[in-house]
Every structure is written in C-alpha cells, then in structure tokens.
Design a protein that fits this description.
about 325 residues; single chain; 7 strands; 2 domains; alpha/beta; seven-stranded mixed sheet; globular
Length: about 325
C-alpha cells in the first residue's frame, strides 16, 4: 500500500488513462523521452494481439474493481505470470477487462517510474557503497551487464535472424542494465534484438551519452570507473570520456597470468555477482519465465521496464 500511495497519490483514479478510452488514443508514450538519455526507438506495435486491438474499440469501463484491486491484479500478472483467463476468474471480470486494466497500469507505471531519477550523484553512490567494495574499487560508480529474454520466433525471416542469439541458441530480446554496488537498478535500456553484441548495445542504448552528460554536470568525475564483464570492449570509448573500465585482467593484451591478475579477476567476479543478483530479482517476476509471445511484443518494453523499476522497491541484494 505504501508503494501504491507513492505511485498514485491519494489513489486518484483520474490520473489513470484507461486503455479503452478515447483519451488514450490522444496520449502516446514517447519512449525515447521517458528514460534520460535513452537513444532508442520503441518496438513497433504492429504485432499487438487481437485482444489488445479489440480493447481499444470498447467503451470505457465502469471500473468494476477498486484501485487497490486493479493494482493487485497487475502485480499478480507480473509476479505470478497468471493468464488473463485465470485473473478474470479470480477477480470476477471479463478477459477484455483484465487486458484493459493491465495495459492501463503498465503504461502508467512505465511513465511514472520512468520519470524518477534512479541514477544518484556519484558522492551518494560511493557514500552508500559497502566498505570492502570501496577499498578495492574506490571510484567505481556503476556495474553493467546484459540480459536476454527468450521470445517466440518471428514469422519474418529477417526478424528471426536479427533476434537470434548464439549465446542462448534462441530468439531473444536483449537489455543493458546498470546497478550500484548494492544491486540497485540505475540504468535500463530499451530491449534490442538478441543478435546485438555487448559493445553495440552499450553504444545504441545511450549509456555512453549519459556518462558524457553526467560528466559535464559534475554528477560523475574524470577517473571514475565502470565495472563490466569480458564482452564489453569499451575501454577506448570510456578513455575518450575520461573514465576507466574494470574488467578481468586476462582480457587485456598480456601474455600469461601473474598472481595479482588472478586475484584481481576473482575479486571483480565476486563484486560483479551483485548485478547478477539484481537480474535474478527482476526475473522472479514469473511473467518472464516463459517464452515471450509475439502478442506481447508491442508492450514488452513497458512490462520489462516496469518490473525492473518495481524491483527497486524491494530490499537491496546487499544490505
């Protein structure tokens, strides 16, 4: 209830633009402007399922459920991965009403949570970092990693090829995430095709541009570092900005290992586990446990982003 009161002050239903109303058609979400510096285009809505298309043609609902129950329905859909039919039975409403409520709230959460500043000033990040982490990496402000969602195979051969991930041996959507040293989500990119490399997703997500802007405004300083895994070959890009990259030593152009290199590799892996734990926390939303159907492609960016941001309301992965 505290989270709901924060998201919807005074539980004022007038702040919600329901999916089946004429007002909704006049309010289009510009996904490029929701997240600061995100240089991406929203996925096409051409693949919306029939249920979503039919919902836009219905008359406004009479609000059969209270605001609290609508929010509960959305959380149950996200967290438990329940079907529309199941939720309709539980809440004694039609399937179309469930779709209407879910899409209404997901878009509201996407815009409301997306407008929050989730990347704090470097001083706040470092002040709240674990002591052990600060001792080993005093200037590291963010840990980045990519994660993938398995999706239904698109019918178009080109889309199939673009979305096929050799890492997962499946068609996927790929997202870049940035977390602090306690696993709090600080950066979320839009979803990209699964064939994109780690380096490409860093460039296309707008992550580097955000770093440039934060350097200009003083929110980060020259010499600060980004921690990443072996696939993120962005050392030169960060050097141009004035930042450093913490990666396992064996990725650098060296011949053989030294004992210090082995120890550094192990400690970086130890601290990078926080971003893995943050991703696992998001994946506890069971809506992502199954293959994402084509019918969800039109709203999957909003669903994924809302789940990522809602995870910040939970306890951090490292106290």
């Amino acid at each position: 209830m505290n989270t709901l009161q924060f998201l919807l002050p005074n539980l004022n239903r007038k702040m919600l633009i329901y999916w089946d109303t004429a007002t909704r058609k006049c309010n289009i979400i510009d996904t490029e402007k929701v997240f600061e510096g995100d240089d991406n285009n929203q996925d096409n809505n051409d693949n919306d399922d029939d249920s979503q298309k039919s919902t836009t043609l219905t008359r406004p609902t009479a609000h059969k459920l209270s605001v609290e129950d609508e929010y509960l329905l959305v959380l149950m859909k996200l967290r438990m991965g329940l079907s529309v039919i199941d939720l309709g039975e539980r809440f004694c409403v039609s399937d179309s009403t469930v779709n209407n409520i879910f899409l209404t709230w997901i878009n509201y959460l996407y815009v409301t949570l997306g407008s929050l500043k989730i990347w704090p000033h470097r001083d706040i990040i470092l002040e709240n970092s674990p002591k052990e982490f600060l001792e080993k990496y005093p200037g590291t402000i963010v840990i980045i990693d990519a994660t993938e969602l398995k999706i239904q195979v698109p019918s178009a051969l080109q889309k199939h090829s673009e979305s096929y991930s050799t890492y997962k041996s499946h068609t996927t959507f790929k997202c870049l995430l940035g977390v602090d040293s306690k696993g709090g989500i600080m950066f979320i990119s839009q979803l990209h095709e699964g064939s994109i490399s780690d380096r490409q997703i860093v460039e296309r997500s707008g992550f580097l541009e955000i770093l440039r802007q934060k350097l200009i405004t003083g929110e980060i300083k020259r010499g600060d570092a980004i921690m990443a895994d072996k696939g993120f070959d962005i050392q030169n890009d960060l050097k141009k900005i004035g930042l450093n990259l913490n990666i396992p030593p064996f990725l650098k152009d060296k011949v053989g290992f030294e004992e210090d290199d082995v120890i550094k590799t192990q400690t970086i892996a130890k601290h990078r586990i926080h971003v893995e734990r943050a991703i696992c926390k998001i994946r506890r939303f069971r809506i992502f446990h199954s293959v994402i159907p084509v019918s969800m492609f039109g709203s999957i960016n909003q669903i994924w982003s809302a789940a990522c941001l809602l995870s910040n309301f939970q306890n951090p992965v490292l106290a």
